[in-house]
Amino acid sequence: MKFFSLTFLIVMMICTTTFAAEIPPPSILVSGEGIVEAQPDRATISVGVVTREKNPAAVQSANARTATSVINSIVALGIERRNISTGNYSFNPVYRHHDNGKRTLDGYEATNSVTIIVDDLNLVGKVIDAALNHGANRVDSLNFGLRNKAAHQDEALRLAVLDAKRKAEVAAFALGKNIVSVRNVSINSSHVSAPRNYKMARSMAMEDAAADVETPIESGTLTCSASVHVEFEISR
After folding, report:
1. Given 12, 16, 63, 229, which residue has the most CB atoms within 10 angstroms?
2. DSSP assignment of 169-223
3. pLDDT tens digit string along 8-29?
4. What kind of architecture, by CATH, is found in domain 42-145?
5. Are 133 and 139 a contacting pair, CB within 8 Å?
């Protein structure tokens, strides 16, 4: 009988130990955010040359001639040709629509979009003015960026992780627990944002070019942000 009781006690201790071992340790799941502000050191400008003529050969020739003049004026400012590229080229017939539902061919339209990368931000206004003064009749976009974007994104990510760690430590202390280890890390997002109203830039460029005044350009500040979710294991 004593042997049976001892055996039963040992079995119960083993079961209790096994059951306790199967219960995962408690954890805290927190989110962290990191934000880094940076001054842009690169601008990407897209200008367009739109020409319309009755004859397809004439519209192609006129568009090519104007686009070449635009590109040459930009190169004259010191922009290397490797930083100038054709973003898009289209050639389409243009129709006139009548009240009776019919349409007639009214000519042809060619559009050549030129993309320019500018690493000297002091030249951004000059590039826009030169393009408009030499035949470009559209400014499609103006975006500011960073040449070494990864370094700023890495810093934002580091700050996001530290933010998550700080939150976990505060929560664990309030619970009377300690952080034991990191169980899981999830990087939610990491990006660079710079809101820019290119329509305003286009309007300013048109007005200032007509007035023979250099287009004023303010690059503002870029925001590099990152967010993470981190699960920390805490003491029992």
Report:
1. 63
2. HHHHHHTT--EEEEEEEEEEEEEEE----HHHHHHHHHHHHHTT-PPP-----EE
3. 444 455 555 554 557 888 999 9
4. 2-Layer Sandwich (3.30)
5. no
| Superfamily of domain 23-41+147-236, CATH level 4 | Protein of unknown function (DUF541), domain 1 (3.30.110.170)
Alpha helices in 76-148 (DSSP H): 124-133
pTM of the model: 0.72
Residue 44: band (very low, low, confident or very high) from pLDDT cuts 50, 70, 90: very high
Distance CA 224, CA 150 (A): 10
Q: Could you read off the pLDDT of 54-110 as tens digits, one per residue?
A: 999 999 999 999 999 999 999 999 999 999 999 899 999 999 988 888 888 999 999
Pseudo-torsion of CA 147, 148, 153, 155, nearest 10°?
A: -140
Give Cα separations from 86 to 21, 89, 168 (angstroms).
65, 7, 51
Q: Are 194 and 61 in contact (CB under 8 A)?
A: no
**Strand pairing report for 42-53 and 103-118:** antiparallel
Q: Answer whether 23-41+147-236 and 42-145 agree in fold.
A: no
Which residue reads 């023979």 in tokens?
A: 212
**pLDDT of 49 above 80:** yes
Q: Would you say 49 and 114 are in contact if contact means Cβ atoms under 8 Å apart? A: yes
Per-residue pLDDT at 14: 52
> Which residue stretches of 85-148 are H helix?
124-133
* pLDDT value at residue 119: 95
Supply the pLDDT for residue 212: 63
